[in-house]
Amino acid sequence: MSASTVEPGTRLAQRFRLEDRVSESEGATxxxxxxxxxxxxxxxxxxxxxxxxVTEVVTAARAASxxxxxxxxxxxxxxxxxxxxxxxxxxxTGESLSDLLAGGPLEPERxxxxxxxxxxxxxxxxxxxxxxxxxRPGKLVWTTGNTVKVLGVAVDAALEGLTTDDxxxxxxxxxxxxxxxxxxxxxxxxxxxxxxxAAPMSDxxxxxxxxxxxxxxxYLDTITCRAVLPESRxxxxxLSTPGQVAEALADVARPLTIQYTPPPSPPPAPAVVSRSExxxxxxxxxxxxxxxxxxxxxxxxxLMTFVxxxxxxxxxxxxxxxGRKLGNPAPPEVAQxxxxxxxxxxxQIVKPSNATGFDPLGDDGAEHPExxxxxxxGKPDTFWHTTNYNNATLGNLKPGVGLLLDMGKPTKIADVIxxxxxxxxxxxxxxxxxxxxxSSLKTVAKQKDASGKVTLTPDEAATGQYVLIWFTRLxxxxxxxxxxxxDVVVYSPGTA
Length: 496
Hints:
It is built from 10 helices and 25 strands. The protein is an alpha+beta fold. The strands form 7 sheets. A 6-stranded antiparallel beta sheet has the order 1-2-3-4-6-5, with helices on one face.
């Protein structure tokens, strides 16, 4: 099949059906497609026969597929064969920074959190020698799932043929431009970008955010200058890597809620609604209305009458109680004070003494045991994962595989919080028991279509030395299927 025959309805890799042509640029076409196996939308790039950088794009996509930060777009498949090349990645639904800025600058803290999340994600990519190089407002998205996504790491640069001698500096400056845009609603470039007007200039230099928009905190103004405005840094050092930008923004309060939900009563004023083409969410700006005037005289009379009645009743009850005590003193055993009710302490984190990949029905009984400690080390960028399988049901080879934690002694289990990959489609079970044998581990909680941070709470009291996170269904991952666990935290009920 040649690229010239690609049209709506074309099926790639016998599973990805092209549906809607989203955009075309210089021989590369972006489609919205359907993954027919997992019944979910995906984004697919296809290429004309004369597109000059097919190999570079496919190579970059395959490298990006190994990135594990959920804030970066997942790449599911990339191939170049039979005269047709394509890249399949996550379909992200939400509002880009361009959409969010349609009504003007964001609140400073909101802009800072968006860029801080993006900086942390790009720092992860740079640790794997992958870069973005073309950060624009359309590449930073606040998703309908209330998370940040950075689109196009490595792939967009390959599509545009961009290279640089200092990719870390380029991406740090790109993050600075995004922060400038979020704080001011302007783009610090010579031309408009993403519908944003160019930033104003003074004496041949871009104005700082505080010179453009009132109310920008001084520390955010300084961070922006350190990242992207060298003429305004004064005595401050430059931020020359995404990691440095992330560190500078590390103290920004999180989590972030971008959209405002009005209270149910009184009804909000009419909303000004802006729709983003091709996106499912709406951004609303609500205009506050003054409250109706109070009626102070009537209200005060009612309150005064109510207070007087309360005082009279309290005096009467007090006198009656005192009289009873004087006339009928209580016996000593009754007069003793009762002990205070026992307090219930908060659940406590219990660290496992050991972790291992658990594959009791496989050939060797283990599943990447060398990676198991990475799921309990508390680091968000390390993880344990299963072997790659050909389908979501573990290649129809066995009913499950998982991560087994040895708590060192019998432990009461309150909750287990597991951070999985962002890809949906996983089914997980929580099993607890006193032996590392599958038959002795009892299922105490289940969750289907799990992704991201998952809380598994036993349906009833559960105690055991061994805790198992058991995958019975796996999400898609770079054209295969595998389960991934970034972190596991076990909570035990607190004691008084």
